[in-house]
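for the writeup, i need someone to sanity check this before i put it in the appendix. the sequnce is what the collaborator sent (i think, or maybe the updated version? ugh). structure was predicted straight from it, no edits. if anything looks off just tell me and ill rerun, i have time this weekend
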Amino acid sequence: MDLVAPVVVEPLRRRRCSECHRGPLERMIVEFNAPVCLDCADLGHLVFLRRGDTALTRRAREASTLWAVVVRHNRRRTRYERQGLLVEEAALAEAERACLADGEARAARRARDAVRRAARDAEITEVLLAEILRLFPSCPVDRATEIAVHASAKGSGRVGRTAAGRSLDRGAVTAAVRASVRHVDTPYDSLLMRGIPRHQARTRVAPAIEAVLLTWRRGGGATSGRGHG
């Protein structure tokens, strides 16, 4: 089956998300002729890989279950031009490791590591981690840590950086955990890559998400890992 990659636009003018109303948006998708931010479009966990390094781009795309094409409109040429890709962070790291053998990505790897270290605010992350484990005591600690780090990345605008997240609003923290389960423990990303609209894909995977959350709230064993189908 042919894959249908989402198309992400870098807008030329200030735009706000039609769902959460955040803005201005650095990148967005267009649904029903309205701008939608990457978090609302379930692409906020992906990282940007600028075009230019052919080997790194190819390897990252091949290793990423979900990826998107980033474009920007060139007014002079009156066409959209590719700026790069959004790929899973783990896939990009894997691609960089593969490229390190011939030195293609050594500088990029160092730069990304420095940005990642600077972006992690330890205090916010630790507080969010403690709340995740309080609400979901059977969530594996390494998984809860991953969720807390992602949700509290500095400058991301994700839940850990919102007023609700900083106040440890139960709904906001649960939303961050639910988003992680959607991408990691269900076939949601694969459904998107098959061209299934995200609202339909969300409906399909909703029971599986709630089952994982129930397990993490009450205990009862490990989760099954990323689904496929």
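The chain has a mean pLDDT of 85. The first strand starts at residue 7 and ends at 9.
thx in advance!!
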